[in-house]
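Risk register update: the risk of archive-format incompatibility is retired. Evidence:
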Amino acid sequence: MPIPNMEEKTSLLVDKYGRQLNYLRLSVTDRCNFRCYYCMPEEGIDFAKRKDLMSFDEMYQLSAIFCNLGISKIRITGGEPFVRNGIMPFLNKLSRVDGLKEITVTSNGTLSTKYQAELLQMGIRKINISLDSLSRDRFHQITRRDNFEGVYAGVFKLLEDGFDVKLNCVVAENKNIQDIVPFIELTKNYPLSVRFLEEMPFNGSDGSQVASEWDYKRIYDHISQHYPEINRLISDANSTSVNYKISGYKGSFGIIPSFSRTFCGTCNRIRLSATGELRTCLYGPPVANLRDLLRRGALVNDVEQEILAAVSQRERDGYAAEVASQGAIHTSMSALGG
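Archived output:
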């Protein structure tokens, strides 16, 4: 059953700088069948115990509360969302929450095609696939898994079924620079949106790594050397990416300054991890644990007040939030929820 197209109400989630939050990133698991170098160490991380993960009922309760407060879009993340048993019945139930206009999913593409028909039936048509290289060898080096052919073929199956597909590519020296132009060339004949992301230091290491030299400016300069005529697109006011199109190409590309954080002033996102940790900024510390509130028997109003209080103290930007985190940003991206 498609998500109802209803008029969006004004969000009650307003921070002290007057920014309204209407977008929830919900992590359904910290587990993943990949071991991407920028997300977690090769040996993996200490995954949360199953009893510490929120149940789908708890996620549903919290999603309904968030939507009552003004959240109208939920992105399902992980880990890899589709590795968790029971994900599809949960999404089906979630698609019926009052006030929710859109559900999107971020996946590594190994399992998403298995559920295409069900996703379409629910009205879920937007999916982001993490794909950092168009070379099997480089893909293996980055993900530490040999799944390139399946993921790549799956992208075109999604397109054939009418999905709105975005490819997320984390750019890094000595990893995949040579893939940037081939990714853009994919948009010539296919209605794909490719997003190039600055690498972020959320890989569960000790935080000793330095910022990548490939920031959003250098990525753009590299692209402009190959394409002298680049058309900038008008993006949504809350977009994290600056978007472009090559004349005559069916698709588009964008650059996300995820480490430079130039988009913080218009950020409309809030994050909930698979263990119930609420973050008002990716770079900041958890500000509450909503799973614990539910398990202590808190009433809906109590949970709402906890969320509203957390949002009211939201930092101005990712740099201020990073100071408040006191090193917590070096948690694995898999645990943070993307």
